[in-house]
């Protein structure tokens, strides 16, 4: 049910929002890892293909970020000031507008997919796997975007439990569907499957995303959540809200695009070291998603707390919420890094028996995450920016960390000094530290506290 977060214990409120979000995203990341486990049973080329497809797919995340980031402050602040009618309109427009934008993005991505994949590999097996996995994901992009919207609407009105249940159940279904759709004989039980290979993995994903969207959509529009937007409202444009959906989160969208493009550049550097390096990145990056799960939970929980309290004009309470979130994020990332120091090789070994990939992955996980505690701190503080609708710091942080620091560092280390692949992993640390410093500077300026969104 919807929940007023302008009163009560802040840490308990943060946990009530963050923990269900963490559990939900953990379930999805477990699915991602299981997905990669099954894909690894096909070949290293299949892993590499899905990895490069995912890298290209990141480029459309900018559009999702623009509307998603805008909707957080719009929904949470209006709900915090008890303007339920405006809350309903913000939810309706977020779902409709994001689906429309996703259709446009899907068309462009389908047109340019093949040329983009050619930047990373000329290996036919790698490219075939990427295309098998990619086209159906592109076709269902509007459903993917819309499923994010319904979960955001629920969280911003204080209900993190329902999205958690939906995400956990859909991830379980996804895990069950993967081997059934991918293999001729389902591993370990030898029951006949559909034998669709990498395409089967993508099909399992879009099936479960569609079910998850429909479930969340039903909860919101049935009124069982405590709010009840109008189905007719999905068909009416609201120029004022639509403009805010495109402008409040625009810095986030540009940031996501720049981050995605920098990810493409980084993967080009990784590809210089061969298919094993690409496979390593594919496995390791999915493992690293686990590091960001608690941070995403803290950020979403903190931003909802901040948004509702700024909407109610409780500025001191909003500031305190960000500090609690920052301490929580820092502590969790310290624990995560200690775990990787001892168990990184064992984790990689779950997905592949290739000794080269295991060694590369171990070094990536240990070296490339050394700055994560600072990222945990900055995620907590920056929840204030999201809740306030002050998203400019995210853009500057991305430009500085990725384009001013990481990519020039990579060019110098790899192209000029001709150093080894470990220096690619070191570049992640330079990005993490620089981004955390930028976010801290903006937080201390305090401009976000005075932002108001209606």
UniProtKB/TrEMBL annotation:
Pfam families: MatE. The keyword Iron-sulfur does not apply. It is found in: Cell membrane. The chain crosses the membrane at residues 12-31, 37-60, 95-113, 133-152, 164-182, 194-221, 264-285, 291-312, 324-352, 364-382, 394-417, 423-444. It is a multi-pass membrane protein. Keywords: Antiport, Cell membrane, Ion transport, Membrane, Transmembrane, Transmembrane helix, Transport. Signal peptide: none annotated. GO terms for molecular function: antiporter activity; xenobiotic transmembrane transporter activity. Its main location: membrane. The keyword Ubl conjugation does not apply. GO terms for biological process: monoatomic ion transport. GO terms for cellular component: plasma membrane. It comes from the Bacteria. This is Multidrug-efflux transporter. It comes from Kosmotoga pacifica.
């Amino acid at each position: 049910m919807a929940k007023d977060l302008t009163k009560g214990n802040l840490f308990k409120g943060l946990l009530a929002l963050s923990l269900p979000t963490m559990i939900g995203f953990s379930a999805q990341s477990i699915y991602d890892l299981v997905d990669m486990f099954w894909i690894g049973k096909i070949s290293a080329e299949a892993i590499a293909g899905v990895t490069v497809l995912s890298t290209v797919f990141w480029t459309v995340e900018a559009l999702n970020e623009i509307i998603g980031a805008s909707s957080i402050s719009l929904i949470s602040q209006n709900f915090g000031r008890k303007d339920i009618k405006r809350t309903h309109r913000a939810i309706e427009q977020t779902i409709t507008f994001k689906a429309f934008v996703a259709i446009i993005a899907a068309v462009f991505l389908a047109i340019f997919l093949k040329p983009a994949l050619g930047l990373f590999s000329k290996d036919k097996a790698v490219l075939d796997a990427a295309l098998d996995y990619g086209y159906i994901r592109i076709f269902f992009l509007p459903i993917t975007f819309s499923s994010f919207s319904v979960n955001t609407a629920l969280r911003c009105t204080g209900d993190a439990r329902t999205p958690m249940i939906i995400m956990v159940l859909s991830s379980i279904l996804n895990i069950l569907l993967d081997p059934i759709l991918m293999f001729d004989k389902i591993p370990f039980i030898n029951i006949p499957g559909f034998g669709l290979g990498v395409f089967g993995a993508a099909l399992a994903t879009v099936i479960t995303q569609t079910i998850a969207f429909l479930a969340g959509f039903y909860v919101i529009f049935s009124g069982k959540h405590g709010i009840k937007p109008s189905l007719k409202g999905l068909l009416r444009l609201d120029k004022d809200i639509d403009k805010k959906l495109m402008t409040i989160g625009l810095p986030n969208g540009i940031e996501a695009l720049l981050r995605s493009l920098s990810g493409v550049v980084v993967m080009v550097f990784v590809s210089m070291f061969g298919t094993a390096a690409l496979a390593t990145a594919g496995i390791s990056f999915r493992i690293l998603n686990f590091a960001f799960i608690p941070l995403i939970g803290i950020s979403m929980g903190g931003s909802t707390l901040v948004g509702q309290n700024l909407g109610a004009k409780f500025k001191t309470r909003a500031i305190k919420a960000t500090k609690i979130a920052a301490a929580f994020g820092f502590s969790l990332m310290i624990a995560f890094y200690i775990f990787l120091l001892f168990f990184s090789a064992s984790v990689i070994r779950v997905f592949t028996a290739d000794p080269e990939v295991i060694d590369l992955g171990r070094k990536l996980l240990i070296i490339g995450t050394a700055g994560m505690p600072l990222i945990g701190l900055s995620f907590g503080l920056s929840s204030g920016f999201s809740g306030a609708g002050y998203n400019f710091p995210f853009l500057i942080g991305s430009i500085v960390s990725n384009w001013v620091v990481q990519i020039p560092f990579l060019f110098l280390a790899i192209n000029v000094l001709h150093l080894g692949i470990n220096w690619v992993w070191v570049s992640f640390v330079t990005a993490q530290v620089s981004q955390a410093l930028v976010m801290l500077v903006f937080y201390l300026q305090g401009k976000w506290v005075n932002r108001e969104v209606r």
